[in-house]
């Protein structure tokens, strides 16, 4: 076991023997290292002013992604390469992304600019020739309140024309950084500040042992929600067990009839599989937070958190997914829909963690997923629905419809499903289901939506599904 957090920060090796579970990367950068290009805007992962790149070995390959430093805990940076805006450079000083922002007047007050630069830098590294959709997707998690987005988008395309990755610092340093990260020993790391402890298990087996020793520990994967527990509610999360680095929780395996997803797989890592196997849900998937959130947040963490407005449970439930829970005592499998017992209560025993999620691949079922929120991107769900409808051509043989934001837990619409099964695949059938769903939920009113609005949405989701599936010429969703 070790007691030192080690990572690379730009071109400097960092070793920390003292750190608390609640220490954030943003505070370390600004207060300890005086790297003040990284800004604090919202402290909740919404505005992108704190965007940095984090590189990690993924199955032996070094991969960089933009993340929010404000909700990234310092302990979770162990074994990473953290890159801030100060590390960018080009042949004449400015990096092509920075030079394009200058040329196209992409900055006004400048507060948000470093975050935009780092998001565009991440795009520039991954996609040298982006289209408009790729640029918009890369900028989902960045907010600007004075410049407007048009000059920033122009800068993105101008940077792509500049090329020049042969001089880019992360390209030139890639072999050295890869070797340094690969040489780090794979062992449990525990650091603390007083009674405040952070633990990084060596692997999934060690995680089970850590949780057996600390059954009340807070498990932290991407911290896209736990980060707010600290920055907004000042909650004590010690001892915190960080699992985002565990490679044996990042597998994606496809077998006949099923795809198994390790609990540590991020939304971004799974997006290509959504495109391949569930393309109808791709727009829904890309609306989970902003790009930085999808790069950090995990599917297993979203399920384990148990939020009634989490985006992945409705889709997983509609698809009939199951999950594997693991502890030092062994493993057990349950349906994802059975995991949610009540608000804030899940079927996870002391010492257990979500190990994997298994999604059936079922033939020619009709699938859809919808989300309504106040902002189109990077916003919390007001109401969401996922459909999985099987037919024999003219008749509905099975229906699974799950909702988020309508009850204390993600939940299936049993009455609406009953109104669909065995009935003709017709407008009249889906209209009947739209009326029946009123008996499935008694939603609350809050600042996101009123109960009446949520009930109206629930009914309209059925009408929308029918119109889209019937082949009628209605433009019901944004055309990319």
TrEMBL record:
UniProt-listed Enzyme Commission number(s): 1.17.1.4
Gene3D superfamilies: 3.10.20.30, 3.30.465.10, [2Fe-2S]-binding domain, CO dehydrogenase flavoprotein, C-terminal domain, Uridine Diphospho-n-acetylenolpyruvylglucosamine Reductase, domain 2
TM region positions: none
InterPro entries reported in the protein's UniProt record: 2Fe-2S-bd, 2Fe-2S-bd_dom_sf, 2Fe-2S_ferredoxin-like_sf, 2Fe-2S_ferredoxin-type, 2Fe2S_fd_BS, Ald_Oxase/xanthine_DH-like, Beta-grasp_dom_sf, CO_DH_flav_C
Record GO terms (molecular function): 2 iron, 2 sulfur cluster binding; FAD binding; iron ion binding; xanthine dehydrogenase activity
Pfam families given in the database record: CO_deh_flav_C (PF03450), FAD_binding_5 (PF00941), Fer2 (PF00111), Fer2_2 (PF01799)
Top EC category: oxidoreductase
PROSITE patterns linked to this entry: 2FE2S_FER_1, 2FE2S_FER_2, FAD_PCMH
Domain FAD-binding PCMH-type positions: 191-364
Residues in 2Fe-2S ferredoxin-type domain copies: 3-88
Protein keywords: FAD, Flavoprotein, Iron, Metal-binding, Oxidoreductase
NCBIfam families in UniProt: xanthine_xdhA
Protein name per its UniProtKB record: Xanthine dehydrogenase small subunit
